[in-house]
């Protein structure tokens, strides 16, 4: 594999379905998610979105930044939504994630879709579980390091 990118932001929110706010540094906890985030401890422990996916929406004239699509980790330089399920991703020097789902059904009361008009998460959002915890912060390297296989691509996301 060896595809590499850079972590642009770590974001959390208190409520599910809302924009997340960037924080200076986050802690990924094994089998849990981002400490302090509303999705921690759920089936979708960590959400990731490529900066390039956000840029597509900016080209539509929208002013958007990290966390505006409720992603925990905003990553640049890595086509996250093209990674096979089961791909392991190293974030920073210690944390390791495993891709469990690509895309998701967007619920109708989604704050992001209501305020922005559309959402890239249903197609290009990636969800992962934390295999190895550790601290993460903007500027950290993000690297696809291998794959173990798995189920979970949401093909009914429209």
Walk me through what this model shows.
With about 160 residues, the chain is mainly β. The chain has one domain: Beta Barrel (M1 Pyruvate Kinase, Domain 3). Helix content is about 10%, strand content about 35%. The chain contains 3 helices and 11 strands; from the N terminus they run βββββαβββααβββ. The strands form 2 sheets. The chain has a 7-stranded mixed barrel. Strand 1 and strand 2 form a beta hairpin. The longest helix has 8 residues. It starts with a strand and ends in an 11-residue tail after the last strand.
Could you name the CATH homologous superfamily?
A: PK beta-barrel domain-like
Structural class: mainly beta
Q: Sheet with the most strands?
A: 7 strands, mixed, barrel
What number of structural domains do the residues give?
A: 1
Number of strands: 11
Assign the CATH class: Mainly Beta
Proportion of residues in β-strands: 35-45%
* Spatial order of the strands forming the largest sheet: 1-6-5-9-8-7-11
- Low-confidence stretches are 150-158
The Cα radius of gyration reads 14 Å
Number of helices: 3
Secondary-structure element series: EEEEEHEEEHHEEE
The third-level CATH topology is: M1 Pyruvate Kinase, Domain 3
| Outline | globular
Distance between the termini: 29 Å
- CATH architecture call: Beta Barrel
Kindly state the percentage of residues in helix. Answer: 10-25%
- Mean pLDDT metric: 86
């Amino acid at each position: 594999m060896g595809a590499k990118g850079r972590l642009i932001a770590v974001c959390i929110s208190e409520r599910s379905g809302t924009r997340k706010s960037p924080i200076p540094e986050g802690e990924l906890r094994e089998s849990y998610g981002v400490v302090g985030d509303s999705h921690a401890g759920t089936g979708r422990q960590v959400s990731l979105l490529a900066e390039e996916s956000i840029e597509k929406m900016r080209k539509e004239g929208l002013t958007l930044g990290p966390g505006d699509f409720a992603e925990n980790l905003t990553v640049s330089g890595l086509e996250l939504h093209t990674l096979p399920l089961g791909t392991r991703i190293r974030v920073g020097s210690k944390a390791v994630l495993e891709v469990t789902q690509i895309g998701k059904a967007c619920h109708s009361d989604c704050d992001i879709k209501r305020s922005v008009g559309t959402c890239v998460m249903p197609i290009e959002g990636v969800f992962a579980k934390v295999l190895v915890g550790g601290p993460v912060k903007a500027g950290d390297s993000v690297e696809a390091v291998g794959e173990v296989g798995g189920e979970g691509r949401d093909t009914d996301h429209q």
